[in-house]
Amino acid sequence: MRAALRYAAVVALLALAWKALALGPAGDVLPHPEEALAAFVRQLGRAEFWGHVRASAARAVAAMAVAWGLAFPLGVLMGSLPRLDRALSPFVTLTYPVPKIVLLPVFFLLLGLGEASRVGMIALILAYQILVTTRDGVRAVNPKYLDTIHSLGGTYRHALRHVLLPAALPHGFTALRLGTGVSVAVLFFVESFATQQGLGYFIMDSWGRLDYADMFAGIFGMSALGVALYETTDLLERRACRWRTRRG
Predict the structure, then answer these.
(1) For the chain, which residues score pLDDT lower than 50?
(2) Segment (H or E) for 222
(3) Radius of gyration, CA atoms only, the chain
(4) Which among 181, 58, 82 is positioned nearest to 125, based on CA atoms?
(5) Could you give the CA distance from residue 182 to residue 184 in angstroms, rounded to a whole number?
């Protein structure tokens, strides 16, 4: 309830700023917020719009799942196994600063124009954030906890279960939660090419038709998708890291 009120307050402030712009010099190109809201409500009643929402949501969720499934275990292993970290860190350090979105044409060439290339592009960008954050989180574990496990005869599996995974999970979920904004931004980009499904396509198509009210309806839809992904990831983090809630 509190989160809903906070979101409502932010939306109200943004609407006031938008209204001021629409009444000012931007009035020739910027629709009034009530016009955009009416277009959004109208689109919510259309099956075609929901088809775009489902396509975008499926791509974003699939990409987040792929990125988490690959990057989180690798981050834990790199953070806890120095030899593996030394072997892979140069590759990560060299490729992490490269803007991955420039590889989109390469993905289209290798994976085709279907879902695999779009999901793969988003997953690649998210995976780097999850990998680096998780690895650094595991590295920060106080060695005395691992020494305690080993002094009691515990193996790497015991350390993984009782120390490394509990230390890594919050970092991995934080990276995933912060990555929801990135995933939606990349989603808009990858849906702007060679597809007719998705909110990114809907926004660009409305823009091309000079239908700015519908364009903002698509932007509203993509914003709502980003909020839903963020809140869902936050809920998953609270469920998976219950000890943090109890401690707080």
Answers:
(1) 248
(2) helix 212-240
(3) 22
(4) 181
(5) 5
Distance in angstroms (rounded) separating the CA atoms of residues 127 and 123: 6
What is the Cα 91 distance to its own chain's centre? 23
The token duo for 102 is 């420039």
Longest dimension (CA), the chain: 74
pLDDT digits (tens, 9 = 90+) for 182-229: 888 888 888 887 788 899 999 999 999 888 889 999 999 999 999 999
Contact 146, 163 (CB under 8 A): yes
Give the residue among 118, 123, 125, 102 at the shortest CA–CA distance from 193. Answer: 118
Q: Please report where in the chains the tokens 């931004």 appear, as a residue.
A: 185
What's the pLDDT at 95? 86
Contact 127, 67 (CB under 8 A): yes
Q: Please write the tens of the pLDDT for every residue from 90-115.
A: 988 888 888 888 888 888 888 888 88
CA separation for the pair 248, 237 (Å, rounded): 14
| pLDDT score recorded for residue 144 | 86
pLDDT given at position 1: 66
Distance CA(244)–CA(248), nearest Å, equals 6
> How many CB atoms neighbour CB 185 within 10 A?
15
Side chain identity, residue 62: A
Residues recorded for the chain:
248
